Amino acid sequence: MFAVLSRAARTGPLVRARTVLLQQRPRIYSKPPKHKIGPGQSFFIMSVFAAALLVPAGWIMHHLPEYRQRPRPPAK
């Protein structure tokens, strides 16, 4: 009896989740781009994105020895 009830308790949420997934319909509509982006613009944007990620990390890595030598503030 317990096995039947535990199996029913486990499959209930799965069945409900499956029906929800089956009822959802995709609502994404796409069109071709109005303005095509050339390779130069793509390279520029990717360079700016890479710099935005790497410059702060490089600045922190460059200043790590300075942070290590700084005396710690006294505990209150």
Automatic annotation (TrEMBL):
<keyword id="KW-0809">Transit peptide</keyword>
<comment type="similarity">
    <text>Belongs to the cytochrome c oxidase VIII family.</text>
</comment>
<dbReference type="GO" id="GO:0006123">
    <property type="term" value="P:mitochondrial electron transport, cytochrome c to oxygen"/>
</dbReference>
<dbReference type="InterPro" id="IPR003205">
    <property type="entry name" value="Cyt_c_oxidase_su8"/>
</dbReference>
<keyword id="KW-0496">Mitochondrion</keyword>
<keyword id="KW-0999">Mitochondrion inner membrane</keyword>
<keyword id="KW-1133">Transmembrane helix</keyword>
<dbReference type="InterPro" id="IPR036548">
    <property type="entry name" value="Cyt_c_oxidase_su8_sf"/>
</dbReference>
<protein>
    <submittedName>
        <fullName>Uncharacterized protein</fullName>
    </submittedName>
</protein>
<keyword id="KW-0472">Membrane</keyword>
<dbReference type="Pfam" id="PF02285">
    <property type="entry name" value="COX8"/>
</dbReference>
<feature type="transmembrane region" description="Helical">
    <location>
        <begin position="41"/>
        <end position="62"/>
    </location>
</feature>
<dbReference type="GO" id="GO:0005743">
    <property type="term" value="C:mitochondrial inner membrane"/>
</dbReference>
<dbReference type="GO" id="GO:0045277">
    <property type="term" value="C:respiratory chain complex IV"/>
</dbReference>
<comment type="pathway">
    <text>Energy metabolism; oxidative phosphorylation.</text>
</comment>
<keyword id="KW-0812">Transmembrane</keyword>
